[in-house]
Structure formats: C-alpha cells, structure tokens
Amino acid sequence: xxxxxxxxxxxxxxxxxxxxxxxxxxxxxxxxxxxxxxxxxxxxxxxxxxxxxxxxxxxxxxxxxxxxxxxxxxxxxxxxxxxxxxxxxxxxxxxxxxxxxxxxxxxxxxxxxxxxxxxxxxxxxxxxxxxxxxxxxxxxxxxxxxxxxxxxxxxxxxxxxxxxxxxxxxxxxxxxxxxxxxxxxxxxxxxxxxxxxxxxxxxxxxxxxxxxxxxxxxxxxxxxxxxxxxxxxxxxxxxxxxxxxxxxxxxxxxxxxx
Length: 258
What we know:
Layout: E1 2-4, E2 7-12, E3 15-20, H1 30-45, E4 51-56, H2 67-73, H3 77-94, E5 99-103, E6 106-108, H4 110-117, E7 120-124, E8 128-130, H5 144-152, H6 154-163, E9 167-168, H7 169-175, E10 180-182, H8 187-199, H9 203-217, H10 221-235, H11 239-249
Parallel strand pairs: 3-4, 4-5, 5-7, 6-8, 7-10
Antiparallel strand pairs: 1-2, 2-3, 8-9
C-alpha cells in the first residue's frame, strides 16, 4: 500500500486500488484531484495494471468539491474545470483497462460524476447518490450531463437533478445507475473479487471494446465537458450561487427567492 496523502494506492494481482482518504466525507481538494489525475496517467503507462478499483475510505465514497479549499484558491470555475476535473474524467474514460467504482457511501456532486465515469459501479447497500449541485446554485459537471441520462434516461436525470433528493442503492440498481449491490460489509471483498476476474481477462480486447462504446455512446464527451465548464462559469456568477454557498457555510437551507 502506498500512502499518497489523501489518496492511497495498492497494486496486487494486476488490480490497482485507489482509495480516497480525505475525512470526514472525502471531499475533493485541489491536491487530491491532482493525485487522482496522476494515478490514472500512471495506470495508463503501467502494463502491470490490468484493472482499477476506485473507492472511498470511511463512511463516504466522495461528496464532491471541497468548497473551503476551492474558495481559498480564488480560481474561476471554468479554469478549475479545464485543469482538474475534465482531464480526470477524460483520463478515466480513455484508460483502456476496466475501471470499477466501489461505492461505499454517499456519492455526490463531482463524486457522483467520477463514479459515473467509471466503467462499472458496485454499490454497498449503504450507498447513496445525489447530483447535489442545485443546492449551491450550480449545474452538473464531470460529464454528469452526458453520463447520467445515458444511464438512467433524460427524464429521470432531470428529475433527480431538480429534486436534489438522494437515492439509495436499490433505487440506483433499479434505474441502472449501478451494476450490482452487495452487503456493506462485503463491498471491498466483492470489489476485489470482481476486479480480479476482470484483470484475468483479455485486457486489450476490453480496452478496444471500451473505445468502441466511447465512440458510439460518448463521442461528444470532450465537448460536453467543455460546455459544462462554460455553464458552470455562468452559474458561479449568479446570486443563486452566492446564496447557496452562504447557506452551506452557515449550515442553513438556501433561500433562492432572490
């Protein structure tokens, strides 16, 4: 096991396990996003890596951007997306090896987008999923605008985005958001078992199949990411976003009747 600060890595039997460790809810700091980008870049180059498992340490998978960290940087939203999240999503999708998200708890905001970008999703019975962005007056990013309707349909994707109501693992399975649900206590073992089966498979053929599906279904991925960054920049300048962030920091419901 390699300790990379907020990202722990372990390579065994051809399976590279990436575990987020940024308590209490595995929010994404700029440093952690950079570590994830580097990990997927290295996985692409390392022929001993045949499958990647992405999971969260503690009680959550990933609840999205670390707002405190982001506000301290004073970085425009579009610039932030183009240098951090967009390369990460493209890196996951372009990695010609299976990527399995083992969702152990809440996946929200950018955390949901990252889970959606993975090839397969194994959910703990305690997992929950929510788009999350509307709470702070923003729009879905990390390719959620493309990946979410591709998995569950446009109507459900819009309803889920507008309602901002978390769905549980069984609902996610029924909608097609996840592939399998297992008991919470068995998640890690089942993820390793599934990843081991994938690692023993024809990696090159899997990679070519992934390229085919990317082209057939996600051919406009880069364009979608760029457009999300454009819209996020617009949303970030609205009174709704300012109220959403203020309410979040003050731990109260937002008042968007501005």
